Amino acid sequence: MIPLSAYVALSAVLFMTGLVGVLIRRNFIVVLMSIEIMLNAANINLVAFSHYLHSMAGQMAALFIIAVAAAEAALGLAIIIMIFRKKMATNVDQINILKW
Amino acid sequence: MMWLLFTYFATVGVVAGILTVSLRNPVHCALALLTLLLHMAGLFVMLNAEFLAMVQIIVYAGAILILYLFVLMLMNLKTQEQHLHKKYSYLVFAVIGLLGELLILLMLSPFGGTLGTATPDIILETGPSHAVGITMFSDYLLLFEIVGVFLLGAVIGAITLAKTPAKTDTQELANSPTP
To answer: N or C: which end of chain B has fewer CB within 10 A?
Structure first.
């Protein structure tokens, strides 16, 4: 029987991988993919706790997280298409017009 | 046997995650992310959540990732010389240190709590999809409806953002050939 802490440790490693991706990648689309990795790590945590604590609430939260991830991907990609049309840039350090 | 499966899914998942954040070509990153999502679906099956595993494959790998690939192909990005923020690379070491401390804390802490009513036996009696469906449409009905409206709003927002800007009347008149 696999202990719960193994799943939680896997989720921590994946979350940190996604965090590093958000911090050091320059391409905006890959930054969005790193956010997907972090959401997936949270999903593993929720499903593991849901299995080990005999409750359906974790699986429900994971389903809603998947829905939120879909919305986030659609909006983020729409924004990047809009910026790409105007500036031909997809690097996050070229898109800083909101910074003052 | 369970340990073998868990080790396989976890190792390939973590390697695919590291490849996702470190590969140079964004399309390769998307394919590594696809590997990660499929292996996480395998872990969901091991955790008695077959419905969630199928949702993961269909929605995540099938819809969201294809959206990413469409946008990547649409932009036709050149592979970049410098794909990482070199001046922030010290952050990697900070994050690795944080991760080490987090893992030690996780291994030391006992996990436990009040057990719920949905034991694996009860779930397996009628199937995971049945359990998920009953819970979703009884206890979580309001949340389900809210997520529906939320997704509708997100889709409308995405269409509005990505739409080609409409030409004004004067431009159209100036550009149109005279009949």
So the answer is: C
| Per-position pLDDT tens, chain A of length 100 | 788 888 998 999 999 999 999 988 888 899 999 999 999 999 999 999 998 888 888 899 999 999 999 999 999 999 888 888 887 777 887 777 777 6
Looking at the domain that runs over B1-78, which CATH code has it been given?
Answer: 1.20.120.1200
Instruction: Tell me which residue has tokens 């419905």.
Output: B51
Q: Note the CATH number of domain A4-87.
A: 1.10.287.3510
How far, in Å, are A9, B51, B116, B117, B139 from residue A56 at the CA level? 22, 12, 8, 9, 10
CA geometry: angle at A66 spanning B124 and B30, to 5°? 115
Query: B115 vs A53: CB contact, 8 Å cut-off?
Result: yes
State the smallest CA–CA distance between residue A38 and chain B in angstroms. Answer: 10
pLDDT in tens, B21-51: 988 888 999 999 999 999 999 999 999 889 9
| CB nearest B68 (choices: A4, A29, A78) | A29
Closest CB to B162 among A4, A14, A78: A78
Domain extent listing, chain A: 4-87
Cβ-defined contact of A43 to B40 (cutoff 8 Å) = yes
CA distance A53 to A99: 46
